[in-house]
Task: inverse folding
């Protein structure tokens, strides 16, 4: 296989993603796991850049790292009495998790094996057009307009619900 | 060596009129650096070396060199800005500020920097050592990565991303992770409180910030920073702040929210000295503390530069065709003016309480920002193109609005509280 700069960076990102994901599931300290998850999400964003999906990469960082991960850390720091929370894994959970993991692996392998096209893919160096414009067209002016609107109504309902739950009860 | 120009003949995109950095994206960047190696470096090498010259390695080195220029130049900014802050605060309090080191104290920051380097690097023994060491670098790296997307002049730009402003928002949202990491790993209640406050503040204020950026993006129809600048090329009235009344409001929301994003007074709750010592960087000392400090001032410059790019014409001048307040010097002048405004606010206003901070964001800024988006959309329907008429109407509305706001605010403030019946 030809070893170029691109393959070097690609394997760098891939290694980063997998190694940090491994740390996420094995490390005992839950805060360490959360920070390791940050590296995983960054690695995935890097892989998106390699697929020339720049918008998706930035969205990945802004939503998962800047939003969801902060929420996870907030939850951990606010809820646990001690700052450091140890995870205890019982044998039954380990068995169940293992079964699910193996099932998922089989599923993914089947999908990969039944997709013949990926073996013939080559990087011919062509630069794809920017994705932003196309995403905008598809969402606001195309086939995904209705799902997009449904999702935004759903988010609005969630927002109102959150406001309702968190506000103080004022009794007359 | 006699023909100096011929030596650079093969150098792609390198003449001063076109700018210093070529416009490069990720793909283009690789190609540009590769081209440079093929056309400039290899012909000048002896043949035996040229045959085995590692092009890939050279490409990486050139890209590192490009990044190195920024890593070398940007820390000089805080050097100037810290002194400026001390001098500004001194003038506001009728003092002279640092006067001893160098003429008028101009070398004071340098002396402080040397002091910080030689200070003991204390690591709290009860804390999380690895995360404690890592946190300053995350904040530092993210505040520097933002500079990659800011166009300082026509082609003085590291990378012309197609997603420009979105990339900047994404990278700057990672800074909050560094803050939480620093606060948690210090194992100190002040640090943890400061970092949690900071996280809540940054996450909240990102919403009005993003929504006011959206008004600009709606008008320009592009996320790319050079395109946002080039849409403001027809003099001061084509600057996006004056284009519609709604972007005028959006500019102020953007600017105030970005002060909150960089944790400065009146929004400096994360490092409130009178309450929680120094917030998330209480336990840091020496060079690691200096990294936080550099990052803070670099951030301040970065958000001002983004505000200038989005609303105040970027590197475009005041008059079309003339270079007044335009180009690289104009951009820096406009940015420093906003930085001065931030310092002015810091030494004028008292700190907000936590509930006031959240009220301001959620009850005022976010509804106004949504109203702005609605208004910008309607404006775009009425005036699809920017004409003289639309600009005159916009400026008239801004003018009348300002006068009304001034009168109403003046009357409200002038009203004396009614005497309480005894």
Result:
């Amino acid at each position: 296989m030809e070893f170029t700069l691109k393959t070097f960076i690609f394997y760098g990102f891939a290694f980063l993603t997998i190694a940090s994901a491994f740390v996420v599931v094995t490390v005992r300290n839950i805060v360490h796991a959360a920070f390791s998850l940050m590296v995983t999400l960054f690695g995935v964003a890097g892989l998106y850049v390699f697929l020339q999906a720049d918008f998706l990469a930035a969205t990945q960082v802004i939503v998962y790292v800047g939003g969801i991960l902060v929420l996870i850390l907030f939850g951990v720091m606010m809820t646990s009495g001690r700052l450091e929370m140890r995870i205890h894994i019982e044998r039954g959970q380990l068995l169940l998790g293992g079964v699910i993991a193996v099932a998922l692996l089989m599923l993914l392998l089947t999908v990969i094996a039944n997709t013949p096209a990926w073996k013939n893919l080559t990087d011919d160096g062509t630069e794809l057009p920017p994705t932003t414009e196309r995403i905008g067209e598809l969402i606001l002016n195309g086939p995904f307009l209705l799902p997009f609107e449904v999702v935004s109504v759903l988010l609005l309902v969630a927002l109102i619900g959150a406001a309702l739950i968190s506000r103080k009860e004022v009794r007359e | 060596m006699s023909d100096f120009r011929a030596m650079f003949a093969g150098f792609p995109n390198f003449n001063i009129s076109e700018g210093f950095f070529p416009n490069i994206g990720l793909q283009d960047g690789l190609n540009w650096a590769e081209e440079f190696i093929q056309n400039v470096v290899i012909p000048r090498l002896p043949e035996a070396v040229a045959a085995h010259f590692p092009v890939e390695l050279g490409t990486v080195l050139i890209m590192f060199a490009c990044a190195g220029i920024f890593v070398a130049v940007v820390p000089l900014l805080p050097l100037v800005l810290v002194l400026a802050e001390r001098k500004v605060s001194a003038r506001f309090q009728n003092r002279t500020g640092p006067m001893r080191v160098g003429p008028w104290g101009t070398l004071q920051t340098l002396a402080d920097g040397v002091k910080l380097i030689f200070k003991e690097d204390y690591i709290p023994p009860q804390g999380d050592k690895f995360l404690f060491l890592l946190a300053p670098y995350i904040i530092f790296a993210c505040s520097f990565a933002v500079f990659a997307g800011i166009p300082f002049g026509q082609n003085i730009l590291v990378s012309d991303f197609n997603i420009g402003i979105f990339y900047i928002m994404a990278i700057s949202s990672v800074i909050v992770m560094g803050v939480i990491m620093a606060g948690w790993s210090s194992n100190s209640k002040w640090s943890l409180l400061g970092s949690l406050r900071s996280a809540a503040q940054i996450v909240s204020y990102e919403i009005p910030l993003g929504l006011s950026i959206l008004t600009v993006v709606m008008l320009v129809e592009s996320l790319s920073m050079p395109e946002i600048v080039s849409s403001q090329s027809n003099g001061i009235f084509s600057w996006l702040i004056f284009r519609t009344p709604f972007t005028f409001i959006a500019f102020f929301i953007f600017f105030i929210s970005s002060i909150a994003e960089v944790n400065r007074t009146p929004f400096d709750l994360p490092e409130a000295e009178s309450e929680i010592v120094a917030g998330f960087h209480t336990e840091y000392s020496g060079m690691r503390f200096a990294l936080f400090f550099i990052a803070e001032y670099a951030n301040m410059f970065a958000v001002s530069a983004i505000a200038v790019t989005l609303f105040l014409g970027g590197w475009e001048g005041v008059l079309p065709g003339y270079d007044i307040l335009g180009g690289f010097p104009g951009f820096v002048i406009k940015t420093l003016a906003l930085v001065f405004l931030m310092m002015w606010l810091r030494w004028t206003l008292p700190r907000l309480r936590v509930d006031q901070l959240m009220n301001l964001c959620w009850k005022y800024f976010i509804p106004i920002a949504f109203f702005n988006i609605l208004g910008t959309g309607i404006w775009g329907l009425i005036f699809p193109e920017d004409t003289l008429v639309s600009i005159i109407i916009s400026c008239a509305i801004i003018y009348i609005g300002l006068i009304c706001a001034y009168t109403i605010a003046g009357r409200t403030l002038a009203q004396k509280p009614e005497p309480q019946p005894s």
